[in-house]
Design a protein that fits this description.
The chain is an alpha+beta fold. The protein is built from 4 helices and 10 strands. A hairpin with a 5-residue loop joins strand 4 and strand 5. It comes from Paralvinella palmiformis.
Length: about 170
């Protein structure tokens, strides 16, 4: 995957294929998934502070997100403030996932994000749609800190994902 090669190059990895070689995206041994995310119009009886999707970070390597113009996606900045990820026509959002954070020993940090209810009345009455491509390493890949440190314990991509799903669902 070209994006993973570019990330490896940007991180000055000697082997720029290191990450992409661990992602055989269309094999049976890989949990990469595309999901259509649909948020219905917001009902009138919304409680103060209610949101559409709570704060979280994605579990895999990265997420490629295509969103409509409804808005509502927010990401947390380095200083802890929520900022709007306003839709830009023709643009995609790339979120770093937790496994890539572990691999890079926090050189790349998993993007904490959420979806809030829009303030504009017109946008509350419309649906929000997005398409998320959750990119995961192959299930049997052992994720360990590539810098040799012991900050994170090694774990297989499959076991990490299974653990996260069991905590979530």
């Amino acid at each position: 995957m070209r994006l993973l090669r570019l990330l490896a190059k940007g991180l000055a990895f000697q082997n720029t294929e290191l990450l992409s070689d661990q992602h055989n995206l269309y094999s049976e041994n890989n949990s990469t998934t595309m999901r259509y995310l649909f948020y219905p119009p917001v009902p009138q009886n919304v409680k103060p502070g209610q949101i559409r999707c709570g704060e979280h970070s994605d579990y895999g390597s990265l997420t490629i997100l295509f969103q409509d113009d409804a808005g509502g996606l927010q990401v947390i900045s380095r200083n802890g403030d929520w900022i709007d990820a306003k839709p830009i026509p023709g643009a995609v959002i790339i979120n770093i996932g937790e496994l890539l954070q572990r691999w890079t020993t926090d050189q790349l940090v998993a993007t904490k994000h959420r979806v809030v209810i829009p303030e504009e009345e017109l946008k509350k009455k419309t649906t929000r749609r997005s398409l998320a491509y959750f990119v995961h390493p192959d299930d049997d890949v052992i994720i360990k800190c590539l810098d040799g440190s012991k900050k994170y314990d090694p774990v297989s991509a499959y076991d990490y994902l299974a653990s996260k799903f069991s905590q979530t669902y």
